[in-house]
Write the structure tokens for this entry.
Amino acid sequence: MKKKYFVLFLALAVSLIIAVGNVSAADKVVKWKMQVTHPFGNAGANTAFFWAEAMEKMTNGRLKVEIFPPNAMCPTSQILQFLEKGVFDAAITYGGFYTGMIPETDLEIGLPLGHQTWDEVWDAMWKRGLGDVIQEAYSEHGIKWYPCAADCYYHFNTTTPITKLEDLKGKKIRAVGVYGKYVQSLGASVTTVHPAEMFMAMKLGTIDGAIYGATGLQDIKLHEVVKYYTLPTAAQISLSLVINKKSIENLPPEIRSVVEIGSRYIVSDLSNEYITHCKNSLNKSIAMGSTQISWLPEQELKKMRTLVRPIWDELAAKSPRMKKGVDILKQQMRDLGRSMD
């Protein structure tokens, strides 16, 4: 069955490319604007550049996407508001910035102690219906949404090893969004520090660690101050490709099909690229002798699930739609043998 669907998609993709390629060169080139959340050179920003390049190739040069750095057209915290208004056409961003506007973004970024791998995210989004729940929320703001992987390792970067809950007591940990609540539930104190300031904050001892992706070990040189990286991951986290629906609707039909259908599969490919980058960053840091892995045993993870469970229940209580999303995730965790009930 999977082979059948793959062949159908391949045939569709080829037909779309041929259709676009047969369009006269005189046809108008569409130019889009896209803003990113992460600085250029970061793996998150690279996702945007790879997507834009794929769109240009698949449309035979008829859709060109100009990418702007963080805060160029609006503050990062207001990307969805400006996108909804049509100030620009698309963005690669992190849903955790917008939980006040769209609570369901908490479900997309990766709940603490939830998904451990990208195939688990894929299963939840595309097979179990979580993606439909999240898209319903985005549609109320005129936005088309696609999930794409960020770090497959997203946990404690610390100066001392974390192998049991007691190791977190008295520690000051940088975390954002729902992961701030995660840190507090485990007994540490949470603080907010901008990624650009984390290196110096750890070097000076202002903070004892941070919940941050393993890509940061090399991308922003955290390996020079991070002695221990905690595994298993708190979650396989996700970024978002978000596109203004009116921008899509205004495209010529043959280009619109490429964007609407092709984006899901392009970001899936880009997800593997990001995951590989994350693994390489951790492995390189270990090989350099600057960072070690600090493992949490299953006994400690069971304790942590009990402590973190109220965070999931708090999210579910926000609305019927949030409850539906959390229920999907809870059933998946039961099926995987990591119950959050």
Q: What stands out?
A: The chain has two domains: 2-150+238-279, 154-235+289-309. The first strand starts at residue 30 and ends at 36.
